[in-house]
């Protein structure tokens, strides 16, 4: 009897083990409840509880290295893009990863270019970046370039590609002239900042110089900062006075 009882108990345990419920992790048609993928949970946590507090580039770069889900989520939520060397990454690769950028800072030539140690035409052209950015970033608002070569055609493309463009800062840049500045002043109706700092404008004859200051809208403007002391030659002082009068938010003029 004891042997029979022991055999029955073993059969019952074996049968019980067979009937135990197990979750359907494969997403099949079994009766088990569906399990939310771990990657989706991580993405939700990152988007709602972490990334909204990350404004530092260093913190965001560190977050993107955690796992693939964090990598994708960080790229989707990044609005400010900083590239310290325009040759460090291909423009297309950058625009494919970061799709929601509103502001971009791009540096080109090395620092010793400030001491005329880089030959003319060395490179660091903004055109390849602009052609990659224009169809991907329709809501781009700010461009800051340092030691880059930007042509008048590039300025024209900026004015026509980004309807909400607000901020153009060029530091130690070259390749453009008053023709491009006139297009920016005329077409960028939401412009707040136009800072030209230690730039090298193309040489123009007197009959080629454009009165770009008079191209700003004749209505009230949104200008907050206007720096153009590197622009050689005379300018229309009366147009500048009228522009200042139409710009109640202007805080810096140089």
Automatic annotation (TrEMBL):
GO cellular component, one term: SCF ubiquitin ligase complex
Alphabetized InterPro entries for the sequence: COI1_F-box (IPR041567), F-box-like_dom_sf (IPR036047), LRR_dom_sf (IPR032675), Transp_inhibit (IPR041101)
Organism (species): Ananas comosus var. bracteatus
Region (Disordered): 1-29
Ranges of compositional bias, category Acidic residues: 1-14
GO biological process, one term: SCF-dependent proteasomal ubiquitin-dependent protein catabolic process
Annotated Transport inhibitor response domain residues: 100-145
PANTHER family for this protein: F-BOX/TPR REPEAT PROTEIN POF3 (PTHR16134), TRANSPORT INHIBITOR RESPONSE 1-LIKE PROTEIN (PTHR16134:SF36)
Superkingdom of origin: Eukaryota
Residue ranges occupied by any COI1 F-box domain in the UniProt entry: 40-79
Name assigned to this protein: F-box domain-containing protein
CDD domains associated with the record: F-box_AtTIR1-like
């Amino acid at each position: 009897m004891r042997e029979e009882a022991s055999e029955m108990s073993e059969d019952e345990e074996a049968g019980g083990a067979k009937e135990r419920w197990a979750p359907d992790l494969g997403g099949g048609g079994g009766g088990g409840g569906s399990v939310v993928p771990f990657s989706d949970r991580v993405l939700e946590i990152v988007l709602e509880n972490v990334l909204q507090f990350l404004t530092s580039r260093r913190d965001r770069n560190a977050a993107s290295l955690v796992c693939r889900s964090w990598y994708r989520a960080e790229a989707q939520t990044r609005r400010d893009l900083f590239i310290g060397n325009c040759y460090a990454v291909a423009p297309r690769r950058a625009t494919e990863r970061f799709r929601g950028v509103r502001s971009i800072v791009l540096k080109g030539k090395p620092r010793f270019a400030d001491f005329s140690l880089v030959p003319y035409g060395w490179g660091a052209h903004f055109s390849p970046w602009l052609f990659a950015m224009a169809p991907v970033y329709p809501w781009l608002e700010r461009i800051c370039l340092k030691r880059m070569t930007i042509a008048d055609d590039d300025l024209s493309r900026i004015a026509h590609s980004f309807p909400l463009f607000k901020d153009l800062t060029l530091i130690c840049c070259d390749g453009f002239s008053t023709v491009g500045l006139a297009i920016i002043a005329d077409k960028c109706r939401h412009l707040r900042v136009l800072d030209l700092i230690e730039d090298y404008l193309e040489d123009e004859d007197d009959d080629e110089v454009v009165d770009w200051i008079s191209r700003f809208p004749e209505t009230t403007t949104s200008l907050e900062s206007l720096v153009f002391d590197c622009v050689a030659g005379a300018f229309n002082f009366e147009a500048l006075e009228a522009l200042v009068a139409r710009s109640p938010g202007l805080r810096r003029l140089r």
